[in-house]
Amino acid sequence: MDAHVGDQLVIRSRQVGRMDQVGEIIEIIGGGGEHYRVRWSDGRETILYPGPDATVRPAVADRPVAVETRTATIDLRLEEDGAHCEARATMRTSIGDFTGVGTARRNPKDPAVPMIGEEFAIARSLADLAAGLEDAARAAMAAADNTPHHLVS
């Protein structure tokens, strides 16, 4: 993870209804940048060893100037009955189509509120789609040459 003092560290939440955590890197600890001292938006400071849900946003002055803009469209299809909802998220790219699938099931004791099942199913299908896109990017990088790569968000 390539990070500098002043960059933002974002920890993505995998729980519905829970916000991402955003903090500013105020110190890089260790020679290889393995962990950081982070000041969170609520004022707390912690030392953090980032996991796979962590990404670094460069400080505004360090952000590269955009050279090209692209638009991607994701097609969402929902199939639903009274107890189940399945969402399919499909994205067409220059190297092929990618599809993520997510499902949600209503507990028979819960009230029938279709939107809740749709939200869960859609979120899960988009997470599955994202994982597939990342796997394809890793495979494309590996096919390009034999040197080890590290994806930076």
The CATH superfamily of the largest domain bears the name Rv1738
The assigned structural class equals alpha+beta
CATH architecture tag of the largest domain: 2-Layer Sandwich
CATH class of the largest domain: Alpha Beta
Helix percentage range: 10-25%
CATH names the topology of the largest domain as: Double Stranded RNA Binding Domain
Give the arrangement of secondary structure elements.
Layout (H helix, E strand, L loop, with lengths): L7 E4 L9 E9 L5 E6 L4 E4 L5 E4 L16 E7 L3 E10 L2 E10 L8 H31 L9
Antiparallel strand pairs: 1-2, 1-5, 2-3, 3-4, 6-7, 7-8
Entry keywords:
Double Stranded RNA Binding Domain, single chain, three-stranded antiparallel beta sheet, SH3 type barrels, alpha+beta, five-stranded antiparallel beta sheet, 8 strands, 2 domains, 153 residues
